[in-house]
Write a structure and sequence with these properties.
The protein is an alpha/beta fold and 532 residues long. It contains 19 helices and 24 strands. The radius of gyration is 23 Å and the shape is globular.
């Protein structure tokens, strides 16, 4: 029996019976006892006990990201980073620099551009501008949301593009209304026409990139992650093998719940896997479905037209009967379901499909739930439904989203305080690499309702969360998603000894100090997996 004493800290447990303690005693990966420094040292400091001095730092239960993409994140480390571009010209310069280093017909993949961050206007690069800076090599550039892409003529040529080619359901190739020529913009699944022609990383390259992203997650204080990777890591069997080899084999320790993209449901049956299959570090999660797109390119499905473009309300990825059939297939396997739903009409469609089937032991999750209506709140308030929110979206979406959805509809959007007060179960994630993985940035957005550097009092300030409420989202809330709140989410006797330790006191600081706070230690099962 191994014993470790984490002592001399200000440890927030999340357990109302002992909300703050100084020391936590760990035996065999579980919280054995907790209390004052003197009591824990007196009782448990024997010859073989390890003592870890937290040096007065604040700790919380380990932070769990309820929705991200570790496989995708790892691959972005290999791609051109366009997230730093603050104008169209800057973006084109970055592409040209990369093209100058790239041989003819070799692909350039980039990620992270966001026209809403461009200063001085100028719009999005046209296909002609992309051809000018990269005439000799095909390019595919994913927007920060992952729902829109830019390509050049070389990429279209290599994909065999023609005006009448069939586009995958839910996707669009944008054309100039005058010339009817492609603009270089692809929406949603239309990118599949391009990606199938890009050489895929081999197994060891995938493993190396995933190893990097797992370590990156722990360096930012995460002890757990709910990740959807089957498209990047190529199927359920290979995805599970990669995580098993890295986390169980190499003992990287991060507790990962693996969502299963719906076209791979047959693999669940073939491999005899189910929700909860695995162990405490790697396990199978819910079936992932997309109901709509994103607000950035107006592909999120709204119940009324966009305020800044009345010609569209967005569109669903699946028609109602198709969506219901996917839910039926998942339920036939006994699987919980996780649905990407940003617009209120998309949420209504998902709930209509859910209502046709009895609940199961595991909870279903509605990922993002950004645009709501009052009538949808009651339908979300269900013991088997979780609103899986991304607080950091607020920092990236405001203020432009106000014009996009309108002053009236924004009052029912990003309303996390209202949702929690209403009794809706909520969890929080980053959706990285769409937003930064750092959970402290998500907590900052939740408690301040503003982006770093903003000096105002917060967007819709009445929706601000307290520090404890925000941490609850990333701990108890994220544990509830997978029915693991009996072993995760709080530091309580018998639960996993997972902790995140910080350089500053989260509970006495000005919230803006979160931006300069560092994670100094990440502890998983009593093992120090990262320290600064």
């Amino acid at each position: 029996m191994t014993t470790a004493i984490f002592t001399n800290g200000r440890i927030y447990t999340g357990d109302s019976r002992h909300l703050f303690v100084q020391s936590v005693v760990v035996r065999d990966g579980l919280v054995h006892d907790l209390g004052s420094n003197a009591d824990m040292i007196l009782q448990y400091k024997t010859g073989d006990a390890q003592v870890i001095d937290l040096q007065g730092c604040t700790a919380t239960p380990g932070l769990i990201d309820s929705h991200l993409h570790l496989g995708w994140l790892g691959l972005t480390f290999l791609q051109l980073d366009l997230g730093k571009a603050r104008s169209k010209d800057e973006m084109l310069v970055l592409i040209k620099q990369k093209a100058n280093e790239t041989e003819a017909n070799q692909w350039i993949q980039g990620f992270g551009w966001d026209e809403n961050l461009f200063v001085g206007g100028g719009g999005i690069p046209t296909i002609e501008e992309l051809d000018q800076v990269a005439p000799h090599c095909p390019i595919l550039l994913a927007r920060v949301c992952g729902h829109a892409y830019l390509v050049n003529s070389k990429a279209l040529e290599l994909s065999g593009y023609h005006r009448d080619m069939e586009v995958p359901a839910g996707g669009l190739i944008m054309h100039d209304p005058v010339t009817q020529k492609p603009t270089g913009m692809l929406l949603e699944t239309a990118s599949n026409l391009i990606t199938k022609h890009i050489p895929k990383p081999d197994y060891e390259q995938l493993k190396d990139s995933l190893r990097s992203s797992i370590r990156y997650a722990m360096a930012h204080g995460l002890t757990g992650a709910h990740t959807e990777d089957l498209r990047e890591l190529r199927g359920l069997a290979q995805t599970y093998r990669l995580y098993d080899e890295l986390i169980n084999g190499e003992e990287l320790a991060l507790r990962c719940n693996l969502l299963v993209y719906y076209p791979h449901m047959h693999e669940l049956r073939d491999l005899q896997m189910h929700a909860g299959y695995g162990n405490s570090h790697v396990q199978i999660g819910a079936v992932k479905i997309f109901a709509d797109g994103a607000l950035g390119r107006r592909t999120a499905f709204l119940s009324a037209p966009y305020a800044d473009d009345p010609s569209t309300s967005g569109y669903p990825v699946h028609e109602q009967d198709e969506l219901t059939e996917l839910v039926r297939q998942a339920r036939s396997l006994g699987m919980p379901i996780a649905v990407h739903t940003i617009g209120d009409k998309a949420l209504e469609m998902v709930l209509d499909s859910f209502d046709q089937f009895p609940a199961i032991a595991y909870k279903d999750r509605l990922i993002h739930t950004q645009i709501l209506r009052p009538d949808l709140l009651e339908r979300l308030k269900h013991p088997n439904r979780i609103a899986d929110i991304q607080p950091r979206f607020l920092a990236g979406d405001f203020p432009w989203v106000i014009d996009r959805v309108g002053e009236e509809r924004i009052q029912h959007s990003y309303i996390w305080k209202t949702m929690m007060d209403y009794g809706i179960i909520c969890a929080a994630g980053s959706d990285t690499p769409v937003e930064p993985i750092d959970p402290l940035l998500g907590i900052h957005a939740a408690v301040t309702r503003k982006a770093p550097g903003d000096t105002h009092g917060g967007y819709m300030h009445e929706e601000k969360l307290t520090m404890q409420e925000a941490i609850h989202l990333f701990t108890v809330g994220s544990a509830q998603v997978t029915n693991e709140d009996h072993v995760k989410g709080t530091l309580s006797r018998g639960k996993y000894a997972d902790m995140t330790v910080y350089s500053k006191d989260l509970f006495s600081m000005d919230p803006d100090e979160l931006l300069s706070t560092q994670v100094v230690m990440t502890v998983i099962g009593g093992k120090v997996c990262f320290s600064r």
